[in-house]
From TrEMBL:
Domain POTRA: 32-100
GO annotations of cellular component type: plasma membrane
Subcellular location: Membrane
The UniProt record lists the keyword Transmembrane helix: yes
The entry's keywords: Cell cycle, Cell division, Cell membrane, Membrane, Transmembrane, Transmembrane helix
Entry protein name: FtsQ-type POTRA domain-containing protein
Main location: membrane
């Protein structure tokens, strides 16, 4: 009886060892190979660009994939704000990313420099819908540029699409030029939330030039 128990115990130990070996070895063999790289969150970037940035090749054993290195590769793309790369057994690598939202841009000799709501310049690329150009001699000042970005980011996305540009006429005077040719004097980059609400009203009114520097007393002519 004792001999039978020893055999059962030895068999259990061997089975456990084989299972442990299989758990380590099999994921690194072609039995569990990468068949798909699933990309979520890409809007400005194409899934193909993201896949290429991971450096992962279909057919690679999924257990051998270095997800940290893949995430670092994707994070190097200018549009990417954050990214996670995970395994989805048995054969899929999932890439979930968040892109920067361009609220403004400035035109330089080398192209359009895109800026997000935090004032971070993150790419030189074609501006998407909703990104407003900041112009004017004063825009060359970093503090003034930050003020212009704050103005742009305070305006809701759909409303920003009605704005062609924000001209920095002085450090304390920003003027919105609308796509339909009208102008809106914003004033200083302050009380921006209330001025954005005033802009919502202005866009529905008739008139050629509006002044919302005092959002409680909008003037028109």
């Amino acid at each position: 009886m004792a001999r039978l128990q020893r055999r059962i115990l030895i068999g259990a130990v061997v089975a456990a060892i084989l299972i442990a070996i299989a758990a380590v070895v099999l994921p690194r063999t072609q039995v569990f190979a990468v068949e798909e790289i699933a990309v979520e969150g890409a809007v400005q970037l194409s899934p193909e660009e993201v896949e290429a940035a991971t450096g992962i090749v279909n057919g690679t054993p999924i257990g051998a994939v270095n997800t940290h290195d893949a995430a670092v590769g994707v994070a190097g793309l200018p549009w990417v704000e954050s990214v996670t790369v995970t395994r989805s057994w048995p054969s899929t690598i999932e890439v979930e990313l968040t892109e920067h939202t361009a609220v403004a841009f400035v035109s330089e000799p080398d192209g359009k420099h895109l800026i997000d709501a935090e004032g971070q310049e993150f790419a030189v690329d074609d501006p998407p819908a909703g990104a407003v150009e900041i112009t004017g001699a004063a825009a060359g000042d970093d503090a003034v540029l930050a003020g212009g970005v704050a103005v742009a980011s305070s305006i809701s996305g759909p409303r920003r699409e009605a704005v062609e540009s924000i001209e920095a006429r002085s450090p304390n005077t920003f003027v919105l030029k609308l796509n339909d040719g009208r102008t809106v004097v914003w004033g200083a980059s302050e009380n921006n939330a209330n001025k954005a609400l005033a802009l919502d009203t202005v866009l529905q009114r008739e008139g050629q030039e509006f002044n919302i520097s005092n959002p409680q007393q909008v003037t028109v002519r």
